[in-house]
């Protein structure tokens, strides 16, 4: 019994260490890439994560703060900027990056963003 309780406390402690698991997402978008996936997660506090994940490796996560004006999302990255760029058009079904090295289009799975 004591071992079971210790195990449960350990599991709960490990789950609480993941900060993104508690953040409420307002926007979720993704697409399958040739060798993995691309993900965009926007949180209620206006932070975001843009992730490029391969099939057999951990993904590269670009993060920062976003601002939505009308139908355009402006991404202010904390560090480096991905090749998709830092601006995207938001439509009913897609987030379409337009000012990077290549255009990127992610399909929206959830969208509760409100324009300012």
Question: Can you characterise this structure?
Answer:
By secondary structure, the protein is mainly beta. The chain has one helix and eight strands, in the order αββββββββ. It has one helix spanning 2-16; strands spanning 25-33, 36-43, 47-54, 60-69, 72-77, 87-90, 94-97, 104-111. The chain has an eight-stranded antiparallel β-barrel. The relative contact order is 0.17. This is Lipoprotein. It comes from Zunongwangia atlantica 22II14-10F7.
Number of strands: 8
Q: Which term fits the overall shape?
A: globular
CATH-defined fold name: Lipocalin
Strand content: over 45%
What is the CA-CA span between the terminal residues?
53 Å
Unreliable sequence segments: 3-16
- Which architecture does the CATH hierarchy give at level 2? Beta Barrel
Name of the CATH class? Mainly Beta
Mean pLDDT: 85
Q: What order do the strands of the largest sheet run in, or round the barrel if closed?
A: 1-2-3-4-5-6-7-8
Protein name: Lipoprotein
Organism: Zunongwangia atlantica 22II14-10F7
